[in-house]
Specification:
single chain, alpha+beta, three-stranded antiparallel β-sheet, 3 helices, elongated
Length: 158
């Protein structure tokens, strides 16, 4: 059996082997081609390896296989939405604080400040920032809705 395969790693060509067509500009292909002109066959991993070794950055697109190519900006937006959804579902990532704003399956019971007895949101500071990793300067973090215990700097108006 004589299958067509990648010149560098010998991975068999074809969708069933996870070796789809990755198309790059002709000028870049000529510089990394196994035949040193425009011939040869490389799998996507070996194309990327050769591009990296040659110091080349260029456009590319999968023309077959299970991956639908989208612009990088679209993929970044999709990943951001996905990370927010994962945080809501319980994953601890950089978006984990959104769980306090959206709780689709839980009904939150009101929390009251032991000092002023007002209903408070223990996850949000009165300034609007998240309590976790609170970064506001000029005051101590105090839960949203609380009227006691706020320490303001002299530069901040009440």
């Amino acid at each position: 059996m004589n299958e067509v395969s990648c010149h560098d790693c010998n991975r068999p060509y074809g969708d069933k082997h996870g070796f789809p067509d990755l198309i790059i500009p002709y000028w870049a292909w000529k510089r990394i081609s196994p035949s040193k002109d425009d011939g040869g066959l490389l799998c996507p991993s070996c194309i990327c390896k050769r591009l990296n070794e040659a110091g080349i950055r260029c456009e590319g697109s999968f023309m077959s296989g299970p991956i639908e190519c989208v612009p990088q900006s679209t993929m970044n937006a999709l990943r951001r939405v996905e990370n927010i959804e994962l945080a809501i579902e319980g994953r601890n990532n950089s978006w984990a604080a959104v769980r306090s704003l959206v709780s689709p399956n839980e009904e939150k019971l009101p929390v009251r400040c032991p000092g002023c007895h007002h209903e408070i949101d223990p996850d949000i500071c009165w300034c609007g920032g998240f309590m976790e990793n609170h970064g506001c300067e000029g005051h101590s973090p105090v839960p949203m809705g609380c009227d006691c215990g706020r320490v303001l700097s002299q530069n901040m108006e009440v």
